[in-house]
Amino acid sequence: MRPATNSFAVLVYPAMSVDKESSNEGNPDVVTSAAASPMPKRKTVGDYVALAIATCGVGYFPIAPGTMGSLVGVGIYLLLRHETIKIYVRYDSDFSRTFTLYGASILLIPILLLAIVALSLVGIWAASRAERLFGKKDPGAVVIDEVVGQLIAFVFVFPYFLDPVGIVIGFILFRAFDIIKPYPIRKLEKLPSGLGIVVDDIAAGLYAGVALSVISMLRLHVLP
Residue 33: pLDDT above 60? Predict the structure, then answer.
């Protein structure tokens, strides 16, 4: 590979291939038609935006980039929850802390759903473009799908009852389902381009969300 002539080239064509420990594990690399064409010399602004969104700043991490993407999802969830509480307290400062947290949790649910829909749609576009730029099916550096899937796993539990232990459990569950890929996740990842990249992690997030909700109910009503 020729040395990169500028810093942007590293974003598009890293010096070494990064394999995501989820989607690409156990699957042979599939080269897309874009790889057969000459490598473009110049990238558009849209290409750089798509790569920034698709990699979320952690996609080139040399070890477990998919896990790093999930951690970004955890961070977004915690940030949204924190900011929602701040907004709610600003308008309901006279209420008790318990009431404020409960009310903020109600407000957080539609915010999370909107964030998931927005990130899914933008992620499909960005992943499709990144796949074309890398010339490889489901490039390991693309982790926006893990971000979306992780957020979906958390939306199944009412935020008021999701404590730090529950967040850790939700993270582990999503990583497990994303790697194991129960039916029909492997079929979904064969969908074309960015749709297949994102939708299979949406399914993994649904599996993790259901499992997390069951565990949360057991912790709340059965376990001491």
Answer: no
Using CA atoms, how far apart are residues 25 and 68, in angstroms rounded to an integer?
A: 16
Query: What's this model's pTM, rounded to 2 decimal places?
Result: 0.81
Burial of 153 (0-12, 13-18, 19+ CB in 10 A): buried
Select from 89, 121, 90 the least CA-distant residue to 102. 89
Question: Tens digit of pLDDT for each residue in 65-78?
Answer: 999 999 999 999 99
| Preceding omega of 14 cis (within 30 degrees of 0) | no
Q: Is the pLDDT of residue 32 over 50?
A: yes
Asked whether the beta carbons of 140 and 19 are under 8 A apart, the reply is yes
Q: In the chain, what are the domain boundaries?
A: 18-221
Buried b (16+ CB within 10 A) or exposed e, 166-177: bbebbbebbbeb
The rounded distance, in Å, linking the Cα atoms of 128 and 198 is: 10
For residues 23 and 64, give the distance between their C-alpha atoms in angstroms, rounded to a whole number: 11
- Integer Cα distance of 159 and 155 in angstroms: 8
Could you give the CA distance from residue 95 to residue 104 in angstroms, rounded to a whole number?
12
